[in-house]
Amino acid sequence: MHFIEEVVVDEFLPTFRSMLAEELRERSLTQSEVADLLGISQSAVSKYVHGDVERNQRLLEDKPLQDLVERLAEGLASGDVTPVQALVETEVFVRELEHGGLLAQLHEEAVPELADYEGEFAVHDADSRMRQAERTLSDVRQGLRVVENTSGFTGLIPAVGSNLVQALPDADGVDDVAGVPGRIVDVKGRATIPAEPEFGVSAHVASVLLAARAAGNDALATVNVHYDEELVEDLESTGHTAVEFDGETTDLQTAVGDALADDPDADVLYQTGGFGVEPIVYVLGADARAVAETVRDLV
After folding, report:
1. Which residues form the HTH cro/C1-type domain (predicted)?
2. Is the dihedral of CA 218, 224, 225, 229 positive or negative?
3. Fewest CB atoms less than 10 Å from the CB: which of 61, 198, 206, 279?
4. d(C-alpha 249, C-alpha 102), whole Å
5. Exposure pattern of 224-239 as b/e (b: 16+ CB <10 Å)?
6. Does residue 132 sit within a domain?
7. Which contiguous run of DSSP H or E holds residue 20?
8. Mind listing the pLDDT tens digit for each residue in 60-112?
9. Do residues 215 and 288 share a domain?
10. Are residues 101 and 169 in the same domain?
11. What distance lies between CA 146 and its chain's CA centroid?
12. In this structure, are 292 and 155 located in the same domain?
């Protein structure tokens, strides 16, 4: 028997660690510093950097893996990403490769008999709900890192706080939307995220996203910021489509649905407030990182 975990150990780990070690060394980190970050010995780092380990060429050429390694190396070298955060993100990536990705392909090639089970159950289910949930949480974490590292983001946080949320592709309620428990708040001029993202922790912002999706919008993520007429104009000037909805009504789905009736693909929703209602802008997008980057470009 040849398990997919063996593919991870024998093929992925040597390739991944060597790629990451090379990237970190290119950023002027010493072998000792690289060893500390990766939790391995200096001699192992030396072997990785000097090509004394066997690497899988298909993994080396995998663009998503290349992007992950570059992103983690940049974050680890600058201190913006901790080793634990890098581990979590890599774990999520490995799960994705195991479920319908390159690792699944390598496993199926090593064990061709798996094809005999096709149609009975999916050993490497690319669309499993667990995989979707892991990917969604990873996207939110990436978006939150953008928010944390955006100088001036606190100037966009409304009095009620901001939240960055992303829904599962088949979401039908707030429990299927991941966000920040307690919301993103301004603490001494810094955007502060009180806890790791979870599902079901955002009621209002998640409801706006779900209402937009119910109206035919394909967005999976949104972030809320304070309303400002110039802010909306800036978004429109950079190619975004903004529509206004009634923020005072208790029937949010109807209000958002009416606003999107003529253009369900609009990617900016806003309401100008009212008695006891703070004016807010919601930026919609394909994932949490994308909407965070849209807001970053406004600062």
Report:
1. 20-51
2. positive
3. 61
4. 48
5. bbbbeeebbeebeeee
6. no
7. helix 13-26
8. 998 989 999 999 999 999 998 889 888 888 888 887 776 667 777 777 777 77
9. yes
10. no
11. 10
12. yes
Q: Which amino acid is at 197?
A: P
- Tell me the torsion sign for CA atoms 150, 155, 161, 164: negative
The tokens for 269 are 């929703």
pLDDT in tens, 9-32: 888 889 999 999 999 999 999 999
First to last CA, the chain: 55
Sheet holding 221-226, edge to edge: 198-199, 177-179, 164-167, 221-226, 280-285, 268-271, 242-244
For residue 61, what is the enclosing H or E element? none
How many alpha carbons lie under 13 Å from residue 47 in its C-beta half-sphere? 12
Could you tell me the two tokens for 280?
Answer: 């807010």
107 and 124 in contact (C-beta within 8 Å)?
A: yes
* Nearest residue to 241 via CA among 274, 219, 273: 219
Q: Are residues 119 and 177 in the same domain?
A: no
Instruction: Determine how many CB atoms are found less than 10 A away from the CB of residue 196.
Output: 14
Identify which of 199, 196, 16 has the alpha carbon closest to the alpha carbon of residue 94: 16
Residue 143 near residue 289 (C-beta atoms within 8 A): yes
Under 8 Å CB-to-CB from 225, ≥6 apart: which residues? 156, 157, 158, 162, 231, 280, 281, 283, 295
